Amino acid sequence: MQDLSIAFTRYRKYIFYLLAIYVLGWGFTAYKSVFLGLILGTLGSLWILFTLARKNKQFTKAYEEGRTVRSLGTMSRMAVAGLAVLIVMEYPENFHLGSMIIGLMTAYFVIMIDFFFQKLHK
């Protein structure tokens, strides 16, 4: 469990670095809607990562106590994605849909890339 919480902390740190880069891109380039879409999607992805980490702790605790867990939060993760899409559809002049979708997948990309780097490091 300790290794997993360390990994989630590392993932959050990488995502915050990416968010800082996106904010700089929004501020200094002409692609404002693309970077706003990336920011919105990445914030949604970060929220999904937080809920995934919380549900993982709950699942581990329940397993150690011999209880069952009702859900791992799939519906709440889908709701975050749906909310992001609704925001983009409401303000299409400010947000780019494709970059928002890429932003929503940021946490999964970070997890996969970190996995490969950790395997190479060991």
What are the main properties of this structure?
flat, mainly alpha, about 120 residues, 5 helices
What does this structure look like?
With 122 residues, the protein is mainly α. It has one domain. Helix content is 84%, strand content 0%. It has five helices and no strands. The chain has helices at residues 2-28, 32-65, 74-90, 97-104, 106-121. The chain is flat. It starts with a helix and ends with a helix. The model has no long low-confidence stretch (mean pLDDT 92).
Contiguous low-pLDDT stretches (5 residues minimum) are none
* Rg, nearest Å: 16 Å
Question: What is the strand tally?
Answer: 0
**Number of helices in the DSSP assignment:** 5
Strand content: under 5%
**Category by helix and strand content:** mainly alpha
How far apart lie the N and C ends? 19 Å
- Estimated helix fraction: over 70%
Reconstruct the topology from this structure.
Blueprint: H1 2-28, H2 32-65, H3 74-90, H4 97-104, H5 106-121
Helix pairs in contact: 1-2, 1-5, 2-3, 2-4, 3-4
